[in-house]
């Protein structure tokens, strides 16, 4: 298995720019099928406490990108996301998707909140 640790200069709180940057980097590298691609914590915005900027919308745009990358490169992708806010609050989560784009694992650091599929 080849592991790709993706690190880049994050555009602060700019999801569109960071989504484009990650996509372009992986297109350049062209991971082989079966690779493991690891994105940073809060890869789409940087580690900001601004929930309005970091939290995903109801359509979970960051998770959709991770699923698209997994399918495109036929690889597992792990990334840090912030789920949709509830009551103005959210949390940092990790999500892993398989080569078919299906969720393999997601949750925060608390074992009580981990969702296995």
Average pLDDT: 92
SSE order, one letter for each helix or strand: EHEHHEEEE
Q: Give the biggest beta sheet.
A: 6 strands, mixed
CATH architectural group: 4-Layer Sandwich
CATH topology: Nitrilase/N-carbamoyl-D-aminoacid amidohydrolase
Gross geometry: globular
Could you name the CATH homologous superfamily?
A: Carbon-nitrogen hydrolase
Strand order of the largest sheet: 1-2-3-4-5-6
Number of alpha- plus pi-helical segments: 3
Q: Quaternary state, please?
A: single chain
Radius of gyration: 14 Å
Tally of strands: 6
| Alpha carbon gap, first and last residue | 22 Å
> Structurally, how many domains make up the residues?
1
Describe this structure in words.
The chain is an alpha/beta fold and 117 residues long. The chain has one domain: Nitrilase/N-carbamoyl-D-aminoacid amidohydrolase. The protein has three helices and six strands, in the order βαβααββββ. The protein has a six-stranded mixed sheet with strand order 1-2-3-4-5-6, covered by helices on one side. The C terminus is likely disordered.
Quick structural summary:
The protein has 117 residues and is an alpha/beta fold.
Topology:
Elements: E1 3-5, H1 15-29, E2 36-38, H2 51-54, H3 61-73, E3 76-81, E4 93-97, E5 103-107, E6 115-116
Parallel strand pairs: 1-2, 2-3
Antiparallel strand pairs: 3-4, 4-5, 5-6
Helix pairs in contact: 1-3
Defining traits:
disordered C terminus, single chain, alpha/beta, globular, Nitrilase/N-carbamoyl-D-aminoacid amidohydrolase
């Amino acid at each position: 298995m080849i592991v790709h640790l993706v690190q880049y200069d994050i555009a602060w709180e700019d999801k569109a720019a960071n989504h484009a940057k990650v996509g372009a980097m992986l297109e350049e590298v062209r991971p082989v099928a079966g690779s493991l691609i690891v994105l940073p914590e809060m890869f789409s915005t940087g580690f900001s406490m601004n929930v309005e900027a970091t939290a995903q919308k109801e359509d979970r745009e960051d998770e959709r990108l991770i699923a698209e990358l997994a399918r495109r490169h036929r690889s597992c992708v792990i990334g840090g996301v912030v789920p949709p806010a509830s009551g103005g609050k959210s949390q940092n989560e990790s999500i892993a998707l398989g080569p078919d784009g299906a969720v393999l694992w997601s949750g925060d650091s608390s074992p009580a909140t981990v969702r296995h599929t």
